[in-house]
Specification:
This protein has 262 residues and is mainly beta. It folds into 3 domains: 4-44, no CATH class; 51-135, no CATH class; 161-261, Jelly Rolls. Helices cover 11% and strands 40% of the residues. It has 5 helices and 16 strands. The protein has helices at residues 51-54, 64-70, 73-81, 93-96, 165-168, and strands spanning 4-8, 11-16, 19-24, 34-38, 57-60, 87-90, 98-101, 106-110, 115-120, 132-135, 177-189, 191-195, 203-211, 223-233, 240-244, 250-261. The chain has a 4-stranded antiparallel beta sheet with strand order 11-16-13-14, with no helix packed on it. A two-stranded antiparallel ribbon has the order 1-4. It has a two-stranded antiparallel ribbon with strand order 2-3. Strand 2 (11-16) and strand 3 form a beta hairpin. The longest helix has 9 residues, at 73-81. It is extended, with a radius of gyration of 28 Å.
């Protein structure tokens, strides 16, 4: 087919009464119609590609159990018979505050306790089946359900130092940081106890959530954060503090500590 002509119909979108609608402009003037010409003559080929190498599919965030279920001989054969080409795998570690290692073969900086920094081997050796994310210490809540480190004070959380004024050159208030505490069910709250390390927040506020799930990352949280009546702290001095937030307990499931200066 040489010199084929395809007419492109322009669609205009408009809103009326808060409802989005679409309207075809097939009957409009010639100035609103574009023309695309497709030249398929073999002698006019500019470039080419191999579909088996250039096209494929992807798999996103599988657990070890999920990998065992997907990579069975039957499912692999069905995928191949459907004409699937190369498959890539996305581990989502950047959203889960975790570290990704492409292979379980490697060395630990503290080999005796299998801890510290892990350096993966550059040799493939046997085929790799599991590519997993590993939790990092001193990291907070993430979409994967990773939890802060459990310790004598129940919860330990570390802020991101690269969002502070020392690295950004801007006010900390422009890059607030926060930690959300999920109490698992609504409970009456009138006070909290915080233990600050060094550095610590000097300006922060304690808030409670009104609405549906505050950690609904799929649909988005529906509700708002409210500051406790006595929840705003300025010129704070760190250490262990017990804060009386309200004279009357507030029923909530989620608490947030919003920090704007340290």
């Amino acid at each position: 087919m040489s010199g084929a002509v395809i007419h492109v119909v322009v669609f205009s979108f408009f809103t009326h009464g808060g409802i989005v609608a679409a309207q075809s402009s097939a009957g409009t003037t010639a100035e609103q119609i574009g023309t695309v010409r497709v030249d398929a003559a073999p002698g006019h080929v500019i470039n080419s590609f191999d579909p088996d190498s250039a096209l494929g599919s992807s798999i996103d965030v599988l657990s070890r159990t999920g990998i065992d279920k997907v990579y069975t001989p039957h499912i692999v054969q069905e995928a191949l018979s459907a004409g699937w080409g190369p498959i890539t795998y996305r581990n989502n570690t950047e959203l889960r505050m975790a570290a990704w290692h492409w292979t379980e073969n490697g060395i630990w900086s503290d080999a005796a306790h299998r801890s510290g920094y892990f350096t993966g081997s550059t040799e493939l050796k046997e085929p790799i089946k599991y590519i997993l994310a590993y939790a990092l210490p001193h990291r907070g809540f993430a979409t994967s359900g990773d939890r802060p480190i459990q310790g004598p004070n129940l919860t330990y959380w570390k802020s991101n130092p690269y969002l502070t004024s020392r690295f950004t050159g801007e006010s900390d208030a422009l890059h607030p940081q926060w930690v959300v505490v999920d109490l698992q069910a609504e409970k009456p709250v009138s006070a909290v106890r915080l233990t600050w390390m060094n550095p610590y927040a000097t300006t922060y506020q304690v808030e409670y959530w009104i609405g549906a799930d505050a950690l609904d990352f799929d649909e988005g949280p529906k509700g708002e954060w409210k500051v406790f009546p006595s929840g705003v702290l300025k010129n704070a001095s760190g250490g262990t503090v017990t804060l009386k937030l309200s004279g009357v307990p507030v029923s909530t499931r989620f608490l947030r500590i919003l920090m704007t200066q340290s």
